[in-house]
Specification:
By secondary structure, the protein is α+β, with helices and mostly antiparallel strands. The chain has 19 helices and 33 strands. Helix content is about 30%, strand content about 25%. About 5% of the residues have low confidence.
């Protein structure tokens, strides 16, 4: 029977993507995608990891759509179709891609953040937080993206550029809504410290929160925080109220985007005169920063024309050390239409009031004030898409949009995603979970017990300039090469999986994405070696069809070697080292070529069970040709328990006996052995290596 991946997939794809397993309490989920384009290989890598874990543990995947926000709305502008229609077109397209890559998803638990059921709950949570004081409205400086025409949080700013558009952000004064996180930062740091998350994730989040100790003093009525005990320079941000009205200083800094320090005055701290300067480097921590360095080595500028400035002296020094944090409260307002409506109205007489009934998307009709009953304007801003994604995981505990009781939810056991979400989604989800716990909606404070963080796939990127705005594009004559960056829909450098599935099959693509590197590493995309995985799959197929079932004896050396490989494959699966799993499977197939008879039939059965989570389509087809039952109901652990390893028993370093260490009660077995139990009366100590030996010193 000739190997034809297209015909095999056509017959088995529906079967292996609709397996029904029991829903367990320990859920493994991936970060859900924005339905704003096609799934690229970065998505496929994420979901393949999830599918492998779930198939091995006989569980189904869960999937949903982070439908609100900039990605979906911008895509609809490009296509010139209504945003809702665009979103559901993309969802249909992505579901089709997930089907052909062989993901076994339980669609009964599908979530969609733009469905009324979901965003009604989002509005309910907003109201609860608003009443409890966790959400407040304030006028202040925000990060403004001139291309996407919306405000962004500090976490959505990358080196001063917008997270989606890539354009330089401006500071703008605007009244927006904030989520108050300052009161939960100590608890967040404690949760981070004791969580079972990768160390570098915990370190990055702790550094971003940036807790530090210092002393408080005042310049006039303005409170200042000094972080360092020893310093020789005090820097004030240009956004500080003390200097915001000095037009000449504003003009000085707006002329260049470079970091500058403008001499301002001397201030008296104790008996010393300390230089006071204005800087455009810092925008946080009450806008004051103390620095320790050689003053001759920094650039301090002076204005040509003098400005009259009052002489400030420091007074009311509070010698007690206080805590301060680098992170600011989370700006959750977005000046876009496609997002969860903020359930507030603004009455001319009564101010902002909550609306009892939830709003629908794009509903901007006037509502009556709940107090004076006069027509009032509905809040025009919408909620940040990260507000939705911070708690969507709770919805995976409920089937087909049933009434939610969040007290029945629990932390996600394993959560899979890219390292680029460290101080965005993962940080917000932690803050959100802690607040929901404090409000009594849930009874846990950590969203995810384990994080499986994979690297990103890097690919070449190109752009061109239009009216001084960067437009990301595919390679063309007029495009400019931008180097290797993360594969992304917004950067237009994603690679679609369809062409590889058509040419080599889904199994080959899945295997190649796992084999090319360990999952935690970044990958530079190169498809030149994908043919090697395709040849390996064909080799397995033809080997399985021509199994040597004669009764020749198999050497003990090969038996032990295969047993050792199977044990290592089990361990690598447990540690998520899928590249090593595939490497050892290649070695095992070479050894199986030297086997025959019932031993070969048994070991090839184990081989197919091992390769099934990575390549479910062809392994399911080959299993049906050789064995009875269904491969997806087999358990990897069954044959792992059959491994026999000798545990050597030594007395004073001399070999006396051995046992097979698969036995549970090793101690009693050893005590019953002849030549051994007589020596226990004079026992001094025991040296025990679980894998190799036990040595009794007498």
């Amino acid at each position: 029977m000739k190997f034809n991946h297209s015909k095999i997939a056509k017959k088995y794809i529906k079967e292996i993507t609709s397996i029904k397993y029991k829903t367990g309490k320990k859920k493994t989920i991936s970060m859900i995608p924005y339905p704003s384009g096609e799934l690229h290989l970065g998505h496929i890598r994420n979901y393949t990891i999830n599918d492998i874990i779930c198939r091995r543990k006989k569980k189904c995947m869960y999937m949903g759509w982070d439908s609100f926000g900039l990605p979906a709305e911008n895509e609809s502008f490009k296509k010139k179709i209504p945003v809702k229609k665009c979103v559901f077109q993309k969802i249909k397209q992505m579901r089709k891609q997930m089907f052909f890559i062989g993901l076994n998803i339980n669609w009964d638990y599908e979530i969609n953040t733009c469905r009324k059921f979901f965003y009604n709950w989002t509005q309910y949570i907003f109201k609860l937080m608003y009443k409890s004081g966790y959400i407040f409205r304030k006028r202040g400086f925000i990060n403004w993206d001139p291309v996407d025409e919306t405000s962004l949080s500090d976490e959505q700013s990358s080196n001063g550029s917008g997270w989606r558009s890539g354009t330089t952000l401006h500071k703008k004064i605007k009244e927006v809504f904030f989520l108050k996180i300052k009161n939960i930062l100590d608890l967040s740091l404690r949760e981070i410290k004791y969580s079972n998350w990768p160390f570098y994730i915990k370190k990055s989040q702790s550094n971003w929160i940036g807790r530090s100790l210092g002393r408080i003093f005042f310049i006039g009525k303005d409170k200042i925080f000094l972080r360092n005990r020893k310093f020789n320079f005090l820097a004030i941000s240009i956004y500080n109220p003390l200097v915001k009205n000095l037009v000449k200083i504003r003009d000085f800094f707006s002329s260049s985007s470079k970091v500058k320090n403008l001499f301002f005055n001397f201030i008296n701290i104790g008996s010393s005169l300390i230089p006071l300067a204005i800087t455009n480097k810092f925008t946080y921590d009450k806008y004051y920063h103390t620095l320790k360095f050689n003053l001759n080595e920094i650039n301090i500028y002076k204005l040509k024309k003098k400005i009259k400035i009052n002489y400030f002296s420091i007074n009311n020094v509070d010698l007690r050390f206080k805590k301060i944090y680098k992170i600011l409260n989370w700006n959750i307002s977005r000046q876009r239409k496609w997002g969860t409506p903020i359930p507030l109205i603004k009455c001319k007489f009564c101010g902002y009031q909550l609306i009892k009934k939830n709003l629908s998307v794009l509903d901007k009709k006037k509502k009556k004030c709940s107090i004076c009953k006069l027509p009032s304007v509905v809040e025009s801003d919408t909620l940040d898409t990260f507000f939705d994604s911070s708690y969507y995981y709770l919805h995976f505990f409920f089937k087909n949009f049933k009434i939610l009781n969040f007290l029945n939810c629990r932390s996600i056991y394993e959560y899979i995603g890219g390292k680029e979400h460290t101080i965005l989604h993962l940080m917000y989800a932690r803050f959100f979970t802690i607040i929901l716990n404090k409000l009594g909606l849930i009874n846990f404070s950590s969203p995810f017990k384990k994080l499986i963080i994979h690297g990103v796939i890097l690919n070449k990127s190109y752009f061109y300039l239009k009216n001084n705005v960067v437009i990301w594009t595919k390679k063309s004559k007029n495009s400019i090469y931008n180097g290797l960056i993360k594969m992304s829909k917004s950067k237009n450098n994603g690679v679609n999986s369809n062409k590889y599935i058509k040419k080599y099959g889904a199994d080959t693509l899945r295997m190649y994405l796992m084999f090319i590197s360990s999952i935690e590493n970044n990958i530079i995309w190169d498809d030149s070696k994908i043919k090697g995985c395709y040849r390996f799959i064909k080799k397995i197929w033809y080997f399985g069809l021509k199994l040597k079932l004669n009764k020749l004896e198999n050497s003990d050396f090969i038996k032990k070697k295969i047993a050792s490989l199977e044990e290592n494959i089990y361990i690598f699966y447990s540690n998520k080292k899928y590249n090593k799993v595939i490497s050892f499977l290649m070695q095992e197939l070479t050894l199986l070529n030297k086997c025959s008879g019932s031993f070969l039939l048994k070991k090839f059965r184990n081989f197919l069970i091992n390769i099934y989570p990575i390549c479910p389509i062809f392994s399911c087809a080959l299993w049906d040709l050789i064995y009875k039952g269904k491969i997806y109901f087999q358990c990897i652990k069954k044959f792992f328990s059959e491994f026999k390893k000798k545990l050597i028993i030594q007395i004073n370093g001399v070999n006396k006996n051995y046992i097979f260490n698969k036995k549970k009660n090793i101690k009693n077995i050893i005590y019953s052995l002849k030549k051994v139990h007589l020596f226990f009366l004079n026992l001094k100590r025991i040296i025990f290596n679980k894998e190799k030996f036990i040595n009794f010193i007498i």
